[in-house]
Specification:
Structural class: alpha+beta
Number of strands: 10
Number of domains: 1
Distance between the termini: 43 Å
Number of helices: 5
Strand content: 25-35%
Shape: elongated
Largest sheet: 10 strands, mixed
Helix content: 40-55%
Length: 256
C-alpha cells in the first residue's frame, strides 16, 4: 500500500509538472499556431510579435499581427494590427469546444498595392481553394468556436509601383461571425470572408476617391480599372465563404 501511495504521488507530481510546463508555454504555442495556420491559409507569411494569455481572466492579447505582401509586390506588410484582443468563455475550457466570444482589433492598417491594375488583395484571393475543397476533414473534430471577429476603423493607403505618391483611404469595418473548426479550418474560414470584405471596402473607397478627384493621372486610371475586378472577386469569395460555413455546419451536425 505504501508503495502504491508513493507511486500515485509521483504520478501526480509528474502530471502537475507537465500541466505547469504546458501553461507556461501556452503563449508561444498559440503564437506558432496562429503564424502557421495563417501563413498556410493566406499563402504569404503571417507574423505575431507576442501573445499574452490569461486563462483565469478569460482574455488573450495578440500583439504586432502582420500579413506580408504576396509575391510580386513590395516588401511592405499588406496588413498590420497593433493588437488583437480576445475574450474567452472560461466555462468552455473544460468542454469539447473552446468558445471565443469575440476578437477585436486595435489600430488596423491595410496597404492596397497595385501592380498594373491588379491588386495585392486580388492576389491573395486568387490562391484560395474552391469552397468544396476546404471542407474535407482536417484531423480531429473542430474544437474552437469564434462568435465574432470585428475589425473596425481600418485605415489604409493606395499605392502603385508606377506612381510615387501613395493616397490615404478609409477601408471601413470588417465583421466575421459564427466560425468553428480546427485551427487550419478556422484560418480558411476567417481569411476568405475577411479578405473579401476588405476587397469590397477597397472598391468602395477607390470609387469614392475617383469621384472626389483625390486620385490623379495614371493612378486614377489604374484604380478605375481595378474597381470592377475587386467587386467581382469579393462577391465570389463571400459567396464561397457562406457555402463553406454551411457545409462545415452540416458536417458538424452529422458528426453529433
Amino acid at each position: 500500500m505504501k508503495k502504491l501511495l508513493v507511486g500515485l504521488l509521483a504520478l501526480a507530481v509528474i502530471i502537475g509538472a507537465g500541466m505547469m510546463l504546458l501553461v507556461s508555454n501556452l503563449d508561444s504555442i498559440v503564437k506558432r499556431a496562429v503564424e502557421s495556420a495563417g501563413t498556410d491559409a493566406l499563402g504569404t507569411p503571417v507574423r505575431l510579435e507576442s501573445v499574452a494569455i490569461d486563462l483565469r481572466a478569460g482574455t488573450a492579447s495578440l500583439y504586432g499581427f502582420s500579413v506580408a505582401n504576396p509575391p510580386g509586390y513590395s516588401d511592405q506588410d499588406m496588413i498590420r494590427v497593433d493588437e488583437l484582443s480576445v475574450a474567452i468563455d472560461i466555462a468552455s475550457l473544460n468542454s469539447d469546444v473552446i468558445r471565443i466570444t469575440s476578437i477585436r482589433s486595435v489600430n488596423p492598417y491595410v496597404l492596397y498595392e497595385l501592380q498594373g491594375t491588379r491588386g495585392n488583395l486580388n492576389a491573395i484571393m486568387d490562391q484560395f481553394p474552391p469552397a468544396a475543397e476546404t471542407q474535407e476533414p482536417a484531423g480531429p473534430l473542430p474544437v474552437i468556436a469564434i462568435d465574432e471577429i470585428s475589425v473596425n476603423g481600418i485605415q489604409g493607403s493606395l499605392q502603385s509601383a508606377q506612381v510615387n505618391r501613395a493616397v490615404d483611404i478609409n477601408l471601413g469595418n470588417v465583421l466575421v461571425t459564427g466560425v468553428q473548426g480546427t485551427p487550419d479550418e478556422l484560418a480558411t474560414q476567417i481569411s476568405r470572408p475577411l479578405i473579401a470584405q476588405l476587397a469590397r471596402n477597397a472598391a468602395a473607397a477607390l470609387s469614392s476617391a475617383i469621384a472626389s478627384g483625390a486620385l490623379e493621372g495614371e493612378l486614377q486610371q489604374r484604380a478605375s480599372e481595378a474597381v470592377d475586378d475587386l467587386r467581382s472577386e469579393a462577391a465570389d469569395q463571400l459567396e464561397q465563404a457562406e457555402d463553406a460555413v454551411r457545409s462545415l455546419r452540416d458536417r458538424l451536425l452529422n458528426n453529433n
